[in-house]
Amino acid sequence: MSSDDGAVSTMVDARQIEAAVAAQRGMAVVVHDLVKCYPKRPTNAVDGVSFAVGQGEVFGLLGPNGAGKTTTVGVLTTRVRPTGGYAEVAGVDVMRDPVGAKRRLAVVPQRSNLDRALSARQILLFHAAYFGIPAEERMRRANELLDQFGLTERADDKVDFFSGGQSQRIMIARALMHEPEVLFLDEPTTGLDPQARLFVWDRIRDLKSRGVTMILTTHDMDEAASLCDRVAIMDHGKLLASDTPDALTATVPGKNSLEVGILLDGGGRDALQSALAALPGVERVEPVTKDGGGPPAGMNPWAALGGGAGAPAGGPPPQPAAPAAGTPYHLRLYASVDAPSLVAPMARLITDNGGELVDLSIAKPSLEDVFIHLTGRALRLWPQSPSLKRRRAQPARRWSRSWRSCDGTWRSPGASCPRSSRR
Amino acid sequence: MAVTGRELPAFLAQVILQPLGLLFVFGRVLTDLGFTNPAYAKQLFPGIVAMTIMLTALQSVALPLVIEFSFTKEIEDRLLAPLPASWVAAEKMVFAAGRAIIAGLVMFPVGWLVLGSIPFDVTGIPLLAAMVVLGSLAGGAMGMTLGTVVTPARINIMFAIVLTPLIFTGCSQYPWPSLSKLPWFQVLTLFNPMTYVSEGTRAALLPNGVHMLTWIPPIALLAALAVFGYVGMRGFIRRAID
């Protein structure tokens, strides 16, 4: 009886996956309920992640270190065998047909893995040879890409002597040699100078216009906001949110706020503050101390508001306790409506109360606020990323014992992972 | 392969200097000084050929593998080629075997230059060919096993505790049957695959000399190839796919 139950549940599971996958037919990447548990780890590195990426879409995967981004991409690029779930790239089941999937995808790694003994041109040609591209076609594509990536002059130099930006360009060119349908970019601009970063961004936009689907992992929120059609934020192996950058930023509480600098004698301040708080559309009003107190933790759109017109010009820092007349003081208004629409009534109110508006800024939350809002501010002490694990190989496994004891919730090693899932 | 071609001089220096030195000191210098019998050089030469083959294959897999899995990560790109991971492993072993065969063949002119004459027997050519091919493949498989078991941090230790015993228990400096005076050592050498390459090569080059029964080396090497090939392949896949 129990074995029957098992069979039935597996069938239901399979049927569910099939249905979910069928609903996403025509998508470039489909991930359904993906789970990955590394042996002897207390928690799942990826814990039931599902998403789909459309043809020609640029999809950003954001998350703190150890969030499970690299593992998710590892499964999609056939480098990691999942514990459970389903993953598909360009219509190919990556578990069932890893070789077929590899033909249709390409990876631009974060760190250079170029063969240092070869020249840029050789790298492109050998890569194409692995993919069975005929010699003449290989040469043509290599020349084209070398030209496009501004590498023609150095095409025959060994890549050992290349700068970070040049290596990155070759790795992108190499990934494009076999004309992949889906391109995975792992922190493509980390450690590049601004020129190189802009160049890479341009190439990514260029590829997008040619219909290449891209999955981008990054820590650079500007990069994600400017390049990605949709962004997913991961943490602790789970997908916390997934939407367009604009829609995501709209979800942050206190998303709209105004900061004003006001010149007013000490007497009327409290009255003004209550009057402002009573304005329709204003949720609450907080005084802002400019010297170290700063805005409340959790959201920090202004940082220090350094060059603002309201900052005391060249003088000593203002004393909040006994402000001198003629020194502006600052208030922050959290709005439930669009912040700019509050500017006019607020200005009127300030004037009516005998004050003078000397500084104004409107804060819109950035993707970074979304990220911090969803994942918290705490630093990640757990070096969980599998690439890190691999880099340290054996010693890491020895240390894992002490990491585990740092975490109060670890399960016994035997209970952590079904051993059979790992071959 | 293209790289090996371009770096042929460096490659030869890497794999030939050590056996050359051994051959020169033990085969030539000690003989000329009267410490050893000239017949010893004839026993030594096949063993040195065997050692060159085995160690070249082993190091051609193990060293790059350890480096590619750790520092350069080149392996990650190789694994993205549209091939099963096991083929990537097989390619590495075959490639290393190719290098080992070249190194083994180069030992013949080198030996002739150093020793003045080298043992050779036309009827032994098929056995010699079998030994060169099987020995290099088995060496590659052993390299794959070592390269995936040993971590980069311990690569130095590997050389000390694996390579050195391998060199001295491989019957390259003495024929195996003559070890009957040291039975425990004779048994110990049977666990080293290099023993069979040495003895097989000796049987091919010196059919009338002292050597192990001719049919044993090919069978033992096939077995070593199967065992280390399997373990190495498993280790490779384990390292390659999380």
Tally of extended strands of chain A? 14
Report strand order across the widest sheet of chain A.
Answer: 6-7-8-3-9-10
> Uncertain regions of chain B: pLDDT < 50 for 5+ in a row?
none
- The Cα radius of gyration of chain A reads 27 Å
> So how many helices of chain B?
10
Radius of gyration of chain B: 18 Å
Q: What is the CA–CA distance across the termini of chain A?
A: 29 Å
Give helix and strand order of chain A, one letter per element, not per position.
HEEEHEEHEHHHEHEHEEHEHEEHEHHH
What's the helix and strand layout?
The complex is a heterodimer of chains A (423) and B (242).
Chain A: H1 2-23, E1 29-36, E2 46-53, E3 58-62, H2 69-76, E4 84-89, E5 92-93, H3 98-104, E6 105-108, H4 120-130, H5 135-148, H6 164-176, E7 182-186, H7 194-209, E8 213-217, H8 221-227, E9 230-235, E10 238-243, H9 245-249, E11 256-263, H10 269-277, E12 282-288, E13 329-335, H11 343-352, E14 356-363, H12 367-375, H13 386-406, H14 413-416
Chain B: H1 2-6, H2 8-32, H3 38-70, H4 74-78, H5 85-115, H6 125-149, H7 155-168, H8 183-189, H9 193-205, H10 216-240
Helix pairs in contact in B: 2-3, 2-5, 3-5, 3-6, 3-9, 5-6, 5-10, 6-9, 6-10, 9-10
Structural commentary:
The complex is a heterodimer of chains A (423) and B (242). Chain A has helices at residues 2-23, 69-76, 98-104, 120-130, 135-148, 164-176, 194-209, 221-227, 245-249, 269-277, 343-352, 367-375, 386-406, 413-416; strands spanning 29-36, 46-53, 58-62, 84-89, 92-93, 105-108, 182-186, 213-217, 230-235, 238-243, 256-263, 282-288, 329-335, 356-363. Chain A has 423 residues and is α/β, with parallel strands linked by helices. Chain A has a six-stranded mixed β-sheet, sandwiched between helices. A four-stranded antiparallel β-sheet of chain A has the order 2-1-4-5, sandwiched between helices. The longest helix of chain A is centred in the N-terminal third of the chain and has 22 residues, at 2-23. By secondary structure, chain B is mainly alpha-helical. Helices cover 76% and strands 0% of the residues of chain B. In chain B, helix 3 (38-70) packs antiparallel against helix 5 (85-115), helix 3 (38-70) packs parallel to helix 6 and helix 6 runs antiparallel to helix 9 (193-205). The longest helix of chain B has 33 residues, at 38-70. Chain B is globular. Chains A and B meet through helix 3, strand 6, helix 4 and helix 13 of A and helix 4 and helix 10 of B.
